[in-house]
Amino acid sequence: MRSNYRPIGDYIKKVEHRNRDLKVTRLLGLSMTKEFRETTSNIVGTDMSVYKVMSKYQFACDFMSPIRVNKLPVVLKLDDEPNLVSPAYPVFEIKDRNNLDPEYLMMWFRRPEFDRYATFKCDAAIRGGYEWTELCETLIPVPTITKQKEIVKEYNVIQNRIVLNQQLIQKLEETAQAIYKQWFVDFEFPDENGKPYKSSGGEMVLNKELEKEIPKGWEVKSFTTVVKFGGGGTPSTENPKYWNGDVPFYTPGDLTQNYYCISTSKKITSLGLQKCSSKLYPVNTIFITARGATVGGVGLAGIPMAMNQTCYAVNGNGSNDYYTHQLTLRIMALLKNEAVGATFEALVTKNFDSQMIISPSEKLTEFFSLNVEPIYQFILNKILENAKLRELKNLLLSKLATIEN
Hints:
Blueprint: E1 5-7, E2 12-14, E3 28-30, E4 36-38, E5 52-54, E6 58-61, H1 66-69, E7 74-76, E8 83-85, E9 91-94, H2 102-109, H3 112-121, H4 132-137, E10 139-141, H5 145-184, E11 204-207, E12 212-215, E13 219-222, H6 223-226, E14 228-230, E15 243-250, E16 260-261, E17 266-268, H7 270-274, E18 286-289, E19 298-301, E20 306-307, E21 311-315, H8 321-338, H9 349-353, E22 356-359, H10 362-398
Parallel strand pairs: 15-20, 16-19
Antiparallel strand pairs: 1-10, 2-9, 3-4, 5-8, 6-7, 6-9, 11-12, 13-22, 14-21, 15-17, 18-19, 18-21
């Protein structure tokens, strides 16, 4: 054991600040990603005076989680606005921040090795969990406070870049959607003079099927007649030669919050790909989750990947992929709106057959894709950059165990 390792208990103390005066109303939960989240608890009629109030630089954790999910949700509060957490969550703080920096300690809590340690220390009881005593006995390296702050600064530079990239990705996705709406919903696509079609007097005709005016020359078609649907499959799970190879294998669990998926939780071998009904789908293939918890989710292949049978693969004609993606997003939004009040358990092809769309010329959809291609490429590049930054962040966390003064 290195000489600078110390028990966490030497540096922390419990905090018991209850919401007796009911002044604080903001209730937050703890996520598996070790961040605060909006609570999903029904608090109607609940006595909020027993809930714990958190202040800046205080920690909250859920000791019961390791036995269930092999993670210890622990969150450091960094904003100034007080919030409440469950009375079941221990809240603690650093005794003296001149000896241990809260953000440095939080870095240690983010290490996968810490979660494995917490899980190992859980007892075998039905409601067994991590305990305050185990937390206090946990040994961590404690270099000088100057060294701690240097490490935290390096970590935050990486993390802030990830957050900035994510904000940019979100804005770019919103921009692509806004352009699609302008062109194909509001009919303000560029006319032959480069001016907005409808507001510049472009000819509109009444479509009796939709009972609305659409640009002259446009048609009304079923969604399934303007896109190409593909399927997937899973190789035998009993044959190890089919698994843990180099071919990314997309499943509903790989759906991301952004457009592109660039990695999958499972991979198959080339032989596994040959032995299943999926094919290797190219970049910009659209995946729609047909079953499972994420039913109706839409993702894009950021790298070539195969797909299992619980998804649909959707493609356009190859030169209008981005138009097809935006169209698919809109169709899925309509389908979800139609399903309000009902359980949306699965999607079948007849769900898509019933979706009628206003179909522009292929020339216009290709022109749209050409215009938004730089946006999509920039989004993909930023997602790839964030993946590298996360690798660097994880490397920094792993090196904490060998930190010297």
